[in-house]
Amino acid sequence: MNAFSILITFLVVLAVYGGANFYIGHRLYRGLKLLIPRLGAWAVAVAYGAVALSLVLMFFPLPRALDDILFWFGSYWMGVFVYLFLSFLAVDLILLVGRLVRLVPSPAPKAVRLGSWLLAVVCAAGFTGYGIWHATQIYEVRYEVKLRDSAALAEPVKIVLISDLHLGAVRSESRLEEIVTRINRMKPDLVVMAGDIFNDDFHAIRNPERVREWFSRIEARYGVYAALGNHDGGDTFPLMLELLEAGNVRVLMDEYEIVDGRLAVIGRLDSAPIGGFGDLERRDISHLWAELDPALPRIVLDHRPSNIGEYGNNVDLILSGHTHKGQIFPANLITNLLFVVDYGHYQKDPGSPHVIVTSGVGT
């Protein structure tokens, strides 16, 4: 994408965001005006404008202290913004239908306008509050998958899959201790990370040494392996690799590792990394199939489930993340349409690989 296309895209997104905020600000003012008749429009416009601007400013280079504040505030504001917009839109559509079928008089009485406004605000607050709580919950989901008949897998192998840690994002480091503790409690044979370990910028991590220490504390009989996601690249990519290596995490970049002679783990580079992986690019790995013992079960770590069409019966299990299962409602309805599988276990037919997509442990 050239500079002109990037500029046009930025202006379109800014116009859409600006229009949505004008609508939200106008609706907030109309409701507040019913409660505080002497409230001035400019007071609401300035206050709300400053809040809405935080989401734009967090993408610009600013002094670290200010950038941290804006990033924290803007991250939460994204959820508030989405649910205020959807709640006001839903209420306005209901009122419009009510007027069309003559259930609601036009103009609507003050009680109806105030009640609908309060309903929208309460719904937005409720959805946002639940979302903030839900983002702190880590769920363990178990799948039992039967791979090819192989003497190498005469005994079960317990694999723990995590994805989308997004280290550097809000609250990402604070949950790492719990994640590692719960992994170790499961006593895994193998731990795998399906990408987006970082959140674009290594320097956004407040305490890299603490992250390294917790990675090194992961206890798995056959070790820890990782593939890279779209947020694991950029200018600080070398620092990301250094931290993972220091934390005893083996990163597989379109390559494989034979684990205890029992199975082959193949890790893929993401197909569209933000900022790139330096000189590395995702490669065709068809040559690997000839190198691998056909009796060994094959597990592929590929960050995006949109790539599962690249694999056939030469693979037994594909482990992915990326989708966050939509992250917030109603985005889950969109990811369900975009991906063959956006969450959970999937197998096209008995001859196809099993696919497991995690919603991720981070936001």
What is shown here, in short?
By secondary structure, this protein is an alpha/beta fold. 43% of the residues lie in helices and 11% in strands. The chain has helices spanning 3-35, 41-57, 64-100, 110-134, 176-185, 208-216, 237-246, 286-291, 331-338; strands spanning 159-162, 190-194, 224-227, 249-251, 255-259, 263-267, 298-301, 317-320, 344-346, 354-357.
Question: Mind explaining what this structure looks like?
Answer:
The chain is α/β, with parallel strands linked by helices. It folds into 2 domains: 132 residues, no CATH class; 207 residues, Purple Acid Phosphatase, chain A, domain 2 (4-Layer Sandwich). Helices cover 43% and strands 11% of the residues. It is built from 9 helices and 10 strands. The strands form 2 sheets. A 6-stranded mixed β-sheet has the order 5-6-7-8-10-9, with no helix packed on it. Strand 9 and strand 10 form a beta hairpin. Helix 1 packs across helix 3. The model has no long low-confidence stretch (mean pLDDT 93).
Low-confidence stretches: none
Query: What count of helical segments does DSSP give?
Result: 9
How can the largest sheet be summarized? 6 strands, mixed
Using DSSP, what is the number of strands? 10
- Using the coordinates above, name the CATH class of the largest domain: Alpha Beta
Strand order of the largest sheet: 5-6-7-8-10-9
Taken in chain order, the helices and strands follow as HHHHEHEHEHEEEHEEHEE
Mean residue pLDDT: 93
Total tally of structural domains: 2
Rounded to an integer in angstroms, the radius of gyration calculated over CA atoms is 24 Å
Calculate the terminal CA-CA distance, rounded to whole Å: 27 Å
What's the name of the CATH homologous superfamily of the largest domain?
Metallo-dependent phosphatases
Query: How much of the polypeptide forms β-strand, as a percent range?
Result: 5-15%
Shape: elongated
The second-level CATH architecture of the largest domain is 4-Layer Sandwich
Structural class: alpha/beta
Helical fraction equals: 40-55%
